[in-house]
Structures are given as C-alpha cells and as structure tokens.
Amino acid sequence: MGVFGRLNKWVVVMIDRQAKFHIGQIVRHRFFPFRGVIFDADPTFNNTEEWWQSIPEEIRPRKEQPYYHLLAENAESEYVAYVSEQNLLEDESGDPVRHSEVAKMFGPLHDGTYTLKGELAH
C-alpha cells in the first residue's frame, strides 16, 4: 500500500487510540540527533522482527504503541525513519524540515505543523 493510501487507514485505526502526535507535526528523536515531519503512522509496530531485534535491547521500544513514519533529517542526510511514540518529542525549534519530499506531500508550515496538500487530505 502506498504512502497516501495508508493515510486513510491511519485515520480510521487511530480514532480508538490516543496518538500523541499527528500527521504534519514536526518531531525529534529522544536519543538520536534527528528530526522530521510525520507523514504516516501505525497503531502498533508494523515492521520486521529482524528490524526490531536490531535495536539495542536497552533502548528497544515496546511494540504495543503507535509508530510513526517520518521524512527525517540529520546534519548529513535526509531519509525516511520509523520511530516509536515513546522515542519522539515535539520539536519546538519552529524550523522547517528540509527533506526534499516535504513539498510533495505538504503545504506551508504553520505553528510547527505542515498541512497535507488538498488532494492527499481526502
């Protein structure tokens, strides 16, 4: 399922859960030096067991929580990240995300949140 098809699934599934973050919000990682804008979410872990096991046990997150897909950036690069809710914090810098895909998915930044472009919000 593509990124945009997943958005509708996220809205329906997340209604019953209290997600701390939302699509378009800029967040940063609690431990690692990267930040990004949320473009999708899963109500619980939805990646491979191998990926989950590759995370050091002392910082490995629980599976039973929302996981967010980010258009992420650090000082050196841009990439897509998959991060548990417990490892995210609201980014309060007010700075835009420089990831090259942001302009394809989102409109302007307002008060730390991007709005989905019209055709993607339906």
Outline the structure in words.
- The chain starts with a helix and ends in a 6-residue tail after the last strand.
- The protein is α+β, with helices and mostly antiparallel strands.
- The protein has a five-stranded antiparallel β-sheet with strand order 4-3-2-1-5. Strands 6-7 form a two-stranded antiparallel sheet.
- It contains three helices and seven strands; from the N terminus they run αββαβββαββ.
- It has helices at residues 3-14, 49-53, 102-105, and strands at residues 26-29, 35-42, 67-73, 78-84, 88-90, 106-110, 113-116.
- It has a single domain, classed as Hemimethylated DNA-binding domain (SH3 type barrels), CATH 2.30.30.
Q: What fraction of residues sit in β-strands?
A: 25-35%
Secondary-structure-based class equals: alpha+beta
- Name the CATH superfamily assignment: Hemimethylated DNA-binding domain
The tally of beta strands, per DSSP, is: 7
Q: What are the low-pLDDT stretches, counting only 5+ consecutive residues below 50?
A: 8-16
Mean pLDDT: 87
